[in-house]
Amino acid sequence: MEEEVPQEIVQKYMSMLEALEELPLQYLIGEWDFMGRTFKVEEGILIPRPETELLVEKVLSLLEKDKDLLGFEIGVGTGCISISLLLERPRLRMYASDVQQKAIELARKNAQRYGVQDRLFLVLGDMFEPVKDMVFDFVVSNPPYIPKRMWEKLDPKVRKEGYLSLIGGEKGTEFYERFSKEVGKHLKEGGFFALEIGHDQGKVVRKLFEKEGFRVEVYKDLSGQDRLVVGWK
């Protein structure tokens, strides 16, 4: 208690307090926790959220522990989904894509932090384009699903996570429409997909996938809202 705080630390603290009016705390700190692990975060890339932990837990419940498996994540962001899966399933290999080079580099840093860079293959591109000839045991994604009309209504701090990370088109369901028509070609027989969805999108998304012949289940989050959709080939 007798020690005096150095002036440069006081100045840094005060400047961070000012910045907190515009930036999310996570970006100021430069990292955030997900499933008990800490991941580097950067402005413009989606911040890991507790709801997405449910997605990882659901996928893990469907993956055998002692089997060689190949998965694919669309929209890798920080890498928290793929890296968490790799750490829990030592015989798993993951491909993961993103449309932002910044996200690819960030995910690479986080993979190196946890020593899974040799089992995570990061590719730049949209949807299935970077892996067009490949098939997987499962596909996972937390895609952008907020309707375009909601952009201006979002908290300014949330908007710092980036339009590409949050907005899913005019209706918000455009990703699921495209995904439902393409995912079947990239799943092994008996394979599955698992996606995060908006709280009011369960019925719409279920119909999209059932129309394409998938067996579908919608799961709720801890607040009782629709949050995940899982489908089997």
Automatic annotation (TrEMBL):
EC number: 2.1.1.297
Residue stretches making up the Methyltransferase small domain: 60-145
Domain of life assignment: Bacteria
Catalytic activity entry: L-glutaminyl-[peptide chain release factor] + S-adenosyl-L-methionine = N(5)-methyl-L-glutaminyl-[peptide chain release factor] + S-adenosyl-L-homocysteine + H(+)
Keyword annotations: Methyltransferase, S-adenosyl-L-methionine, Transferase
PROSITE patterns in the cross-refs: N6_MTASE (PS00092)
Any one Pfam family match given in the protein's UniProt record, by short name: MTS
Family annotation (InterPro entries): DNA_methylase_N6_adenine_CS, HemK-like, N5-glutamine_MTase, RF_methyltr_PrmC, SAM-dependent_MTases_sf, Small_mtfrase_dom
A GO biological process held by the record: methylation
Top EC class, one word: transferase
GO molecular function, one term: nucleic acid binding
NCBIfam families listed in its UniProt record: hemK_fam (TIGR00536), RF_mod_PrmC (TIGR03534)
Protein name: peptide chain release factor N(5)-glutamine methyltransferase
Organism: Thermocrinis minervae
